[in-house]
Design goal:
The complex is a heterodimer.
Chain A (H helix, E strand, L loop, with lengths): L1 H5 L2 H5 L6 H7 L8 H10 L2 H23 L6 E5 L5 E5 L1 H4 L3 H18 L6 H29 L7 H4 L6 H21 L6 H21 L10 H6 L3 E4 L11 H8 L6 H17 L21 H17 L5 H11 L18 H37 L1 H16 L2 H11 L4 H10 L3 H14 L3 H8 L4 H13 L1 H23 L10 H6 L10 H29 L1 H7 L1
Antiparallel strand pairs in A: 1-2, 1-3
Helix pairs in contact in A: 4-26, 5-7, 5-17, 5-26, 7-8, 7-11, 8-10, 8-11, 10-11, 15-16, 17-18, 17-20, 17-21, 17-24, 21-23, 22-23, 24-26
Chain B lengths: L1 H27 L4 H6 L13 H12 L6 H12 L2 E2 L5 E2 L5 E2 L9 H4 L26 H40 L5 E3 L2 E2 L1 H4 L9 H32 L8 E3 L2 E3 L14 H36 L4 H15 L2 H12 L2 H5 L24 E3 L2 E3 L1 H18 L2 H17 L2 H8 L4 H18 L1 H19 L5 H11 L2 H29 L7
Antiparallel strand pairs in B: 1-7, 2-3, 4-5, 6-7, 8-9
The chains are: A mainly alpha, B mainly alpha.
Chain lengths: 567, 518
């Protein structure tokens, strides 16, 4: 604008001289791409990296969509009265969505649409807006969840507890704004989205979405999966998701609980047959699951069939003193007639669906991989830039800190911390992040030691720019490349750490995890249930491999030797 | 060079402090305290009686010194492992146990606060005179007496801890009766500083009971303080041979890693049993890695940008990405499964452990007698170690082969290689003698990066294959909240790790005359 004022109008219309850029354009030379755009093009030109991106997208999509792909709660539920009249239609799936799940779903879908639509806004700035919204909303919901997890028991004013009341709408909204407010204010300062009005729009929308999500389900729900039972009695009709099970939907526990009062046919069967058989059968492999033992007690049996059933059971008990798995299976198949919903990849020892577990475990792996790496990169950048910029005593002292964390194998530290601290997702993210920053700090330190001698830094110092500006506006963008490339490998390593910790039983107990599934693959008597080990191993392998391949492609893309080789 | 090694060794000391402090503080963060986690341990049978679990917890806290602030506990741990000690010299019992001077004993906080009107307590435990007669006792008699007074003090101290916990429970009752809610921490814990703010109110029944129990506790404290004085007197007469060299208050002695909280064994002894196993696992894995990865890297470099190069690179990266937990479990599930392996007519590998059950009766070397071939101890162990070593090693291939390839490629472009080619050296000789030899140097230091990763990886492998090594010890310790073992394992792991790094640097300097640290 200032240029407009200073220049005479005539010179704008007809340039008096031809610039070098114009000459090059005339020679059909295209403008060179920005650094990262060029690197991205190089990455996507490789088949391996493209495949890796596809797999990572699948895992991320599964992580976001897990609750609507695999859930024991029906998508649509139609309730009928005693005489068959329709009482109402509801969606238990939606009612049972956790705040994070709801937020992720809405933001994921809206974000995708927003990103794909042809809008007059560059893709880059749209990505930045989605990223800012994820960060702000994620932090808001994180704090709300931590409060919900830890503070409900010692709640000084009682309003956290009062929020559990489904009718306390005003309270939920107020509390939601209390959670969302501070992060919204914080987000105004962080210049991820520019200019300011656009930033405020993004922040407001995100805060609203977060408030709705938090208010939607507050308090740990105690899900009761009694739909199939009620469906059998004709009370309800249900439409399920693609995989009609939740990862922790235990068939037998639930049936036992529902049947604790009163005696029925079912109870007799469950007590006399299913319960003693269950430990003998153990997890069921996918190819034997057309006949599912948990379905057994839902068969409409008449008195004759019961007699037959009990006779078969007694006979089986008599002849098989120490029954093999095959014996048990045969006996069950002979006794049973019905078949239930299909468990595509089998069940585990408690009758829980493996496929649902696998899908829900994507969430843990991806979120731990991304967030712990984010924490590690942040710590690494701060400590590394301080070391590199100041040098001297600061460098000496902080480098001792790096050496201390490096002195022990990270996994060893992680095992100690995970074993001692409370077992939940956030602690796991924090500890993996807090022990993983040393590599990043060393990279940044080395870059900064080089950069601080350079002219542009010296002149920035000379004009008296504040330290924050010198460190993070001038030096960091020039020195951050190795850290960003390393982040891809760090995510891979974090996913491996998570699986190892979960395997050792040090992970969050209420979360589906690939490592946990592998740990259950070797039964108590040393029986090996291959489907509990093969699929999660494959999932971890593919995810880790994808991040490694992506990292290598990026490393090649930003390698200065590549440019030289092309010339 | 020596100068450099000395400097590195000295720099190791603050690192060791830092690491052990960090681990100590992480363990101290344990919610509910360590003693709560130890309940399932040795004291599990004593939870009956009044006070029950709380008394056992107090007893355990006192036994392991867990009721002090964490930094104090850390300093105490440091002073034990430090070779320079500032305490009285320890003495060695005939069965090799380290016996320290008796621990000081303090009157319970409630009594010390000068708030309960109790007369009988002697607040300064040091002023109590011993009642034992030491004149004219021979060495053997002195040792016998020491054993007696030692167990007397242990008993008296135990009783005192129990009594003061019961006193505290009474104080909670009292606080409830009088209505000082702020002083109640939990059912069995009281905040003394809050309680003593209001003067003692003798009116209620709870107060009377508190007073009675208080007097009781004071009496028991006096008895315990006397027992301590007795033990101290006998200890000062040196009934047993003294350890280390120096004088009381400044002496040199072997580091003491303490006793395991959950097993009655010295930590050093436990680690001494386990460290060789872990080292064996890792040391066997290193040649496996080098023998496979280096030829593969050389091959990839000589056939640069061909199919072979791509395949080798992809294969090793894929190996790196395989999760150890999955590979270990799958290896046990398939390769150690007799049904599965017999499909291919192969014998199945063992599922775990280091030896067969009858390993002790085996000859060391394989032999073949009339009853056929016998594997012998060595072969049996190799047979058991095959799977674990492979599982530890496989992920190291990628790093090393990539490094080899890069080093080779760099040297292929070097001037001396071009000169060698120009003067007509055979291409194979150029690769082997000019390029490969010069590429070997950085490979020496490679185990610096591989070793810590392998060490950590063997934690998981030991757990899966139930090999009694350091990793399994650490995991068992963390499950039982056994702090002493954890700290010991941390210390030793760190020392081994840092020494490996130092060794690599020294080897590098020896192998490459251009490198000098002076």
């Amino acid at each position: 604008m200032s240029a407009d004022r200073n220049q005479p109008a005539a010179s704008r219309e007809a340039p008096v001289s031809v610039s070098g850029v114009m000459a090059m354009t005339g020679l059909h030379a295209r403008a060179s791409k920005p650094f990262w755009a060029d690197a991205w093009d190089h990455v996507t030109s490789k088949l391996a990296a493209r495949l890796a991106l596809v797999w990572i997208s699948i895992v991320v999509a599964l992580a976001i969509l897990a609750p609507v792909i695999a859930s024991g709660h029906p998508l649509v539920l139609r309730e009928f009265g005693p005489s068959g009249e329709l009482l109402g239609v509801s969606s238990p799936l939606f009612d049972n969505l956790r705040p994070g799940e709801l937020f992720g779903l809405v933001l994921g879908l809206l974000g995708l649409v927003f990103f794909v639509l042809p809008l007059p806004l560059s893709r880059q700035s749209r990505l930045a807006m989605i990223f800012a919204a994820t960060l702000q909303g994620g932090l808001t919901i994180l704090i709300a969840s931590i409060l919900e997890l830890n503070a409900l028991s010692r709640d000084p004013w009682g309003w956290l507890e009062a929020m559990r009341d489904p009718d306390a709408l005003g309270l939920k909204l107020t509390a939601g704004f209390v959670f969302a407010g501070p992060f919204a204010l914080l987000a105004i300062v962080v210049p991820i989205v520019n200019p300011l009005p656009r930033r405020i729009v993004v922040i407001t929308l995100t805060a609203l979405l977060a408030v709705v999500s938090i208010g939607h389900t507050w308090g740990e729900p105690d899900p009761v999966f009694d739909y199939r039972e009620r469906e059998r009695t004709g009370e309800i009709q249900a439409v399920y998701t693609l995989v009609p099970f939740s990862p922790f939907e235990r068939q037998l526990d639930r049936d036992a609980r529902n049947r604790s009062e009163g005696t029925s046919l079912d109870e007799t069967l469950a007590k006399r047959v299913v319960t003693p058989l269950r430990p003998l059968v153990g997890p069921l492999p996918p190819d034997q699951l057309d006949r599912v033992p948990p379905e057994l007690d839902r068969l409409p049996l008449d008195a004759d069939q019961i007699d037959e059933f009990e006779a078969a059971y007694a006979e089986w008990r008599a002849q098989a003193e120490s029954p093999t798995r095959a014996d048990v299976q045969r006996a069950l198949e002979r006794i049973m007639g019905g078949s239930g919903a299909r468990y595509w990849l089998g069940t585990d020892g408690q009758g829980q669906d493996v496929l649902a577990h696998l899908i829900h475990a994507c969430r843990l792996s991806i979120s731990i991989g991304l967030i712990s790496t984010g924490i590690a990169v942040t710590i690494g950048i701060i400590i590394g830039s301080l070391m590199g910029y100041f040098g001297g005593l600061v460098d000496l002292l902080l480098y001792r800190l790096v050496e201390i964390v490096q002195g022990v194998p990270v996994l060893f530290l992680l095992i100690i911390a995970a074993g001692v601290l409370p077992k939940n997702v956030y602690v796991m993210m924090a500890i993996i992040g807090c022990f993983g920053w040393t590599g990043d700090a060393r990279f940044i330190r080395a870059e900064f030691l080089k950069l601080r001698k350079m002219d542009f830094v010296q002149s920035a110092q000379a004009v008296g720019l504040p330290l924050r500006s010198i460190l993070f506006k001038h030096m960091l963008p020039n020195g951050i490349t190795p850290v960003l490339v390393n982040a891809s490998f760090a995510i891979a390593a974090a996913i491996l750490f998570e699986s190892a910790l979960s395997f050792l039983g040090l992970g969050p107990p209420d979360q589906a995890s690939w490592g946990k599934l592998i740990a259950s693959a070797i039964g108590e008597a040393g029986v090996f249930y291959h489907w509990l080990a093969v699929y999660p191993t494959l999932a971890i392998f593919l995810t880790v491999l994808s991040f490694v391949l992506l990292g290598e492609a990026f490393r090649d893309a930003i390698d200065p030797k590549r440019k030289k080789a092309r010339v | 060079m020596l100068n450099y090694i000395a400097r590195r060794l000295l720099l190791m000391i603050p690192t060791l402090f830092g690491i052990t402090f960090m681990v100590f503080m992480i363990i101290a963060l344990s919610p509910g305290g360590l003693a709560a986690g130890l309940q399932l341990g040795p004291g599990a049978t004593q939870t009956q009686g009044e006070g029950g679990a709380a008394v056992v917890e107090a007893y355990l806290e006192d036994r392991y010194g867990l009721n002090d602030p964490a930094p104090v506990q850390y300093l105490r741990w440091l002073s034990r492992i430090s070779p320079i000690k500032f305490t009285k010299r320890d003495q060695e019992s005939p069965d090799g146990q380290r016996l320290s001077a008796p621990r000081p004993i303090n009157p319970p906080e409630l009594v010390r606060a000068d708030w309960l009107p109790i007369e009988t307590v002697t607040l300064d435990a040091g002023s109590i005179e011993p009642t034992v007669e030491l004149e004219g006792l021979g060495t053997d008699e002195l040792a016998g007496l020491y054993k007696r007074v030692r167990s007397e003090y242990a008993n008296a101290r135990g009783q005192f801890i129990r009594a003061s916990k019961l006193l505290e429970i009474r104080a909670v009752d009292y606080a409830e009766a009088v209505g000082i809610e702020a002083a109640i921490e939990s059912e069995t814990e009281v905040r003394v500083e809050r309680l003593v703010r209001t003067p003692f109110d003798a009116g209620s029944a709870a107060a009377a009971e508190l007073l009675v129990v208080g007097e009781d506790t004071a009496r028991i404290f006096n008895a315990a303080a006397r027992a301590r004085a007795n033990e101290m007197a006998v200890f000062d007469a040196h009934p047993l041979p003294r350890m280390g060299i120096g004088v009381d208050g400044l002496w040199l002695g072997a580091p003491d890693l303490g006793q395991s909280f959950t097993r009655s064994q010295d930590v050093l002894e436990l680690i001494g049993d386990r460290l060789p196993v872990t080292m064996l696992l890792n040391v066997l894995a290193i040649p496996v890695i080098y023998c496979i990865a280096i030829p593969a890297g050389v091959l990839a470099a000589t056939r640069r940008d061909t199919l072979i190069d791509t395949v080798i690179g992809a294969f090793f990266v894929a190996l790196w990405a395989l999760p150890r937990v999955g590979v270990g479990v799958l290896a046990i599930g398939y390769l150690a499964d007799s049904n599965w392996m017999s499909q291919f007519g192969l014998p199945h590998l063992p599922t775990g452990g280091l030896h067969s059950d009858d390993a002790n009766e085996m000859l060391f070397l394989p032999s073949s007698g009339e009853d056929g071939f016998r594997p012998g101890y060595l072969l049996d162990m190799a047979w058991h170690l095959a799977l674990p070593v492979l599982c530890v090693a496989y992920s190291g291939f990628a790093v090393l082969s990539k490094q080899t390839r890069a080093a080779m490629l760099e040297n292929f472009n070097a001037d001396f290689v071009r000169t060698a080619r120009a003067k007509g050296v055979a291409p194979g000789d150029v690769t082997l003698y000019h390029v490969f030899r010069n590429s070997l140097l950085p490979l020496i230091t490679m185990f610096v990066t591989i070793f810590p990763a392998m060490f950590a990886g063997s934690i998981i492998i030991e757990e899966i294959f139930s090999i009694e090594g350091m990793g399994k010890l650490a995991i068992d310790a963390i499950r039982r909240r056994d702090r002493e073992v954890l700290l010991g394992v941390t210390l030793i792991t760190t020392i081994v790790n840092l020494l490996a790094l130092l060794l690599a640097d020294i080897l590098y300097a020896i192998a490459d005359p251009r490198v000098s640290y002076d």
